[in-house]
Amino acid sequence: MSTPELQWFKSSYSSSNEPGDCVEVATTPTAVHIRDSKTPRTAQLKITPSAWARFLTTLPT
Question: Which of 14, 29, 49, 55 could anchor a disulfide with 10, C-beta 3.0 to 4.6 Å?
């Protein structure tokens, strides 16, 4: 059984003037994957969707 490729995206708030200064996120029904856009082939975080939602609620608006 093969694993589908993750579809990574950056925040709409990411500045195109500084293309390497952000994180990228890929979501699946059971996990949120997070990586550094400057080094996408290195370690990644994998957290639950509920943990991601809690994290997002702590960010300043």
Answer: 14
Which among 3, 25, 1 has a CA at the least distance from the CA of 13? 25
pTM for the model stands at: 0.77
| Domain ranges for the chain | 21-58
Report the SS3 class of residue 25.
Answer: strand
Per-residue confidence in pLDDT tens, the chain, 61 aa? 445 789 999 877 666 666 667 889 999 999 999 998 888 888 999 999 999 999 989 988 7
Q: Could you tell me which residues are beta bridge partners of residue 24?
A: 10, 35
Rounded CA-CA distance 54/61 in Å is 14
Work out whether strand 32-36 and strand 45-47 pair parallel, antiparallel, or are unpaired.
Answer: antiparallel
